[in-house]
Amino acid sequence: MKVALCPGSFDPVTNGHLDVILRTASQFDKVVVAVAANPEKLPLFDVEERLEMLNECLAEKDNVEAVAFDCLLIDMARQVGSTAIVKGLRAMSDFEFEFQMSQFNRQMAEDIETFLVMASPEYTYLSSSGIKEVVSYGGSIDGLVPEGVARRLYDKFGGPAAAGASGKE
Ligand code: PNS
User: Fold this and answer.
1) I need a labelling partner for 148 at 20 to 30 A (CA). Which of 13, 19, 71, 134 fits?
2) pLDDT tens digits, 85-129
3) Which of these, 61, 59, 100, 64, lies nearest to 80 by C-alpha position?
4) 39 pLDDT tier (thresholds 50, 70, 90)
């Protein structure tokens, strides 16, 4: 069985992440979405919330599961029986980071490959940090994240109307 590992902070999951996860799920027998419990950036959502959001969005997909991890990614890959790390690439600006990560991982585990999936054109600008910034200033992120995720973001920051900025009516 070919298992792909899709790792990330997912703070929170966006439609861009889901696009990469679902496209990966169509190419592999199984996808394990690995949520970094303690990403370098201080997360807005704790790991349980981030997992809950992913599980809600992916409930219909039988061959995708989300789990938390707090170790080296290559160790997580071995734990779930995967030799394929899959990440999305939006622009050249992502490339440097992903290239460095893949080289680190390759140096530690030669048998584990990193695959970079090009973001779909409609998601090339989308990022979790951009989403959080827009909501924090009262903007609308409807259509950029799943509904349940938008609801949780509005709960944290107050909805777009509440903040009175560029939210939709
Ligand atoms: O969503 P992100 O920020 O691109 O996710 C980065 C993540 C969590 C995939 C990356 O930081 C990671 O793999 N962390 C686990 C520790 C590790 O294995 N680092 C690689 C060698 S430095």
Assistant:
1) 71
2) 999 999 988 999 999 999 999 999 999 999 999 999 999 999 999
3) 64
4) confident
Q: Angle 127-129-133 (CA atoms, 0-180°, nearest 5)?
A: 120
Q: How distant, in Å, are the alpha carbons of 2, 56, 62, 69, 91 from that of 53?
A: 25, 5, 16, 16, 26
Q: How far apart are CA 34 and CA 38, in angstroms?
A: 12
Nearest to 8 by CA among 87, 101, 109, 124: 87
Active site residue 102: no
Instruction: Please report the domains of the chain, with CATH numbers, ordered by start residue.
Output: 3-123 (3.40.50.620)
> Closest residue (by CA) to atom 7 of ligand 1?
8
- Contact between 140 and 166 (Cβ < 8 Å): yes
Report the atom number in ligand 1 closest to the C-alpha of 98.
Answer: 4
**E strand or H helix that includes residue 84:** strand 84-89
